[in-house]
Design a protein that fits this description.
This protein has 8 helices and 10 strands. With about 270 residues, it is an alpha/beta fold.
């Protein structure tokens, strides 16, 4: 797959999205042996250019025939795209690393956090899933504690920027926020978070809304208000990565800059 003279041919699916752009940055930062980089995205972005290694790469339309000659395909275009096109990438000979929820709990697909269960990569048959952004740091922290002292119960809360709903929300708020009412801001946040499989988020203060548009672009909203969501998959993924008896009480808090307002939904069976 890798030869000294050419490196790997890498495809990034969802290349123009916020996570896709971060993948480009990390590939460069880590000096990953990229011989050729292929940027793939939807029809909306096809034909544009993305920055890479001091130059630009053309964005190609994602399709089942996009993966000829590709060694590694990094997917971050949502679960639907992953379910549709990951099998085609594998059939073309690529190793798929999927960042969506599509394959995380699929039998035969290893769910891997390298610091915890890198050996499971050996069982991959074409697709490797990475966990939810909450489950990854959770397992990295818990596994050495488990090895050193054992664990019985974990209560965990995460604080996540509303920009996790994706570029669509960030762009919409940056473009429209001055004329948006509190209700329309709420509706926009809920719509984009629902599309990203998040649960709830609320902006309460119209004067804080302008700060929100600027803050989410930097992925650091401030001041912070809280809207809470529970993510059952965090518990399921944690047990999939490192199977051991453990009671986990998870809660994810979506942060938005506004006056404090809480909406909560308890995870069935979770402790308080």
């Amino acid at each position: 797959m890798l030869s000294p003279d050419r490196g790997l041919r890498v495809a990034v699916v969802g290349a123009t999205g916020m996570v896709g752009q971060e993948m480009f940055r990390v590939l460069g930062q880590r000096k990953f042996p990229v011989g050729e980089l292929k940027a793939l995205a939807s029809e909306r972005s096809a034909g544009s250019q993305v920055a890479w290694n001091g130059g630009t790469v053309p964005v190609e339309l994602l399709g089942e025939g996009s993966f000829g000659g590709v060694d590694v395909a990094l997917f971050s275009a949502g679960a639907g795209a992953s379910r549709t096109y990951a099998p085609a990438a594998v059939a073309s000979g690529a190793l798929v690393v999927d960042n969506s929820s599509a394959w995380r709990l699929t039998e035969g697909v290893p769910l891997v956090v390298p610091e915890v269960n890198a050996d499971d990569l050996r069982t991959a048959e074409g697709i490797v899933a990475n966990p939810n952004c909450c489950a990854i740091p959770l397992t990295v922290v818990l596994e050495p504690l488990r090895r050193a002292a054992g664990l019985e119960r974990v209560v965990v809360s995460t604080y996540q920027s509303a920009s996790g709903a994706g570029r669509g929300l960030v762009d919409e708020l940056q473009e429209r926020l001055p004329e948006m009412s509190v209700e329309s801001v709420n509706a926009a946040i809920r719509r984009h978070l629902a599309a990203a499989s998040a649960y709830v988020a609320v902006v309460a203060d119209p004067e804080g809304a302008a700060e929100f548009a600027r803050a989410v672009g930097a992925n650091a909203p401030s001041p912070i208000s809280y809207a809470t969501e529970t993510k059952p998959e965090v518990l399921a993924e944690d047990r999939e990565i490192a199977v051991y008896p453990l009671s986990v009480d998870p809660r994810a808090i979506r942060t938005v800059p506004a006056d404090a307002l809480f909406e909560t939904a308890e995870l069935p069976g979770a402790g308080t």
